[in-house]
Design brief:
It comes from Haloarcula vallismortis ATCC 29715. It holds the Pfam family Pyridox_ox_2. InterPro entries: Pyridox_Oxase-rel (IPR024747), Split_barrel_FMN-bd (IPR012349). The longest helix is centred in the first third of the chain and has 10 residues. The strands form two sheets. The chain has a six-stranded antiparallel β-sheet. It is globular, with a radius of gyration of 17 Å. The protein has a single domain, classed as Pnp Oxidase, Chain A (Roll), CATH 2.30.110.10. The protein is α+β, with helices and mostly antiparallel strands.
Length: 150
């Protein structure tokens, strides 16, 4: 191994700092899986009462929908890094949340509680027709929540 490689030691974040940073941040990467095949995408989130909520646009038969149906344990990653001229003095943190992800029923109070349009940026649409898209609120019930910082 090349001994000139720069390393930055990290430490665990206290639980209250993890929750505060998760609540203050608004986006990350959601990773889903079907067996040994993974699918990940950037998404906006809302953190409330130990759960993460995601407002997702899906089209019928889409790859995203198939992975959401197949995933038993989802992983969500939020990270922030501040670059400096000296690579060894970079600072940053990361949070990993893991747990089951399920669609929230339309009549669930969570729809009103998270004030959908005020909590999320507009859904990013690529080539899909919006009239063919279902907008669904998903909840990731956090079972494991860890954070690291330096």
């Amino acid at each position: 191994m090349d001994t000139d490689i720069a390393f930055a030691y990290t430490e665990g974040m206290p639980d209250d700092v993890v929750r505060d940073r998760l609540a203050a941040s608004e986006r990350g990467v959601l990773a889903l899986a079907d067996g040994d095949d993974a699918y990940a995408f950037p998404v906006f989130h809302h953190y409330e009462d130990g759960s993460l909520y995601f407002r997702l646009g899906e089209t019928r038969g889409s790859e995203k929908s198939a992975y959401l149906d197949a995933t038993e344990t989802a992983t969500y990653v939020v990270t922030e890094t501040e670059a400096t001229p000296d690579a060894e003095s970079w600072t940053g943190w990361s949070i990993i949340a893991r747990g089951p992800i399920t669609a929230v029923p339309d009549d669930d109070p969570a729809y009103a509680a998270v004030e959908i349009n005020e909590r999320y940026a507009p859904i990013r649409v690529f080539e899909e027709a919006t009239d063919e898209m279902d907008v669904t609120l998903y909840e990731l019930s956090i079972e494991v929540l860890t954070g690291r910082q330096n």
